[in-house]
Each structure stands twice: as C-alpha cells, then as structure tokens.
Amino acid sequence: MQPIVLFIGIILFFVLALAITNYIQRKKGNTQTREMAPPSIDLSGGGCCGAHEVCEKDSLIAAFIEKPEYFDDEELDKFARRDSGEYKNSEVDEFREVFYSVLDEEKPRWVRSLQMRGISLPDQLKDEVLMFVNELRTLKMHA
C-alpha cells in the first residue's frame, strides 16, 4: 500500500510544481502568443499543400498510421534526419531532379511524403517549392 501512496504523492508534487511554474511565468509575462495566424493554403483537391511543417489537412494520428508514398525517390531516404541547412549543392540537385520529375498535381503529396519519412527539404529548394505550390493554388482557384 505504501508504494501507491508514494507514487500518488510524487504525481501530486509534479502537478503542483508545474502549476506554480506556470503561474510564475505568466506573472513575469513570459508567455508566448502568436501575433497572427499562419498563412493557409487550400488546394481543396486533397493532399497536403507542402507549405507547412505539419500538414494542416491531416491529423497527427493519421501521420502515424499512414504509410509514406514513394515517387521513385527511395534514394532520398539516405537524407532522413538531416538538418535542412546542411545539404551540399550536389545533394540539392538530387532533390531538385526528383521534384521536377514528379507530376505537378503530385508535388504536394511528394513534399508530404518527405515529411513522413523524416526528410527535410533543403533550404536552397524551399523557395522553389513554395513558389510552385502558390502557383498551383492560384491555378486551382481560377480553374
């Protein structure tokens, strides 16, 4: 019976400590609030737009259940868990080659696939991808 009481006491201690820390941070004004909502890109054709770190169209649970889709780009798996700013120019060219070989309407799904596989898009390619996604959105809105 004593281990259960000890366990409950430890949990209460941590909850109380968290509440006190939270209170102190709010008193100091150290809370962070978002000044404006992040831009949203609605392609209304399903799939992820590729413009966000986490796809807004999919729940977090779905990301764990869903298997990544491959676009004949298995060679990019070697870049998993690499920081987006650490790519060499030759490695960026590998990403660029795959990006431009994927069909236009599949590009947002390709970006989502990279996210699911833990592969960061190189910084040097992010502007191109975002520009393409914005253009795709514009075309879908005017279609």
Topology of helices and strands:
Elements: H1 2-28, H2 60-65, H3 89-101, H4 107-116, H5 123-142
If you had to describe this structure to a student in words, what would you say it looks like?
- This protein is an all-alpha fold and about 140 residues long.
- It has two domains: about 1-35; about 60-140, no CATH class.
- It has five helices and no strands.
- It has helices at about 1-30, 60-65, 90-100, 105-115, 125-140.
- The longest helix has 27 residues, at about 1-30.
Number of helical elements: 5
Helix content: 40-55%
* Helix and strand pattern: HHHHH
Distance between the termini: 69 Å
Structural class: mainly alpha
| Shape label | elongated
Average pLDDT, rounded to a whole number, is 78
Task: Summarize this structure as a short list of keywords or feature phrases.
mainly alpha; 2 domains; 5 helices
Write a short abstract of this structure.
It contains five helices and no strands.
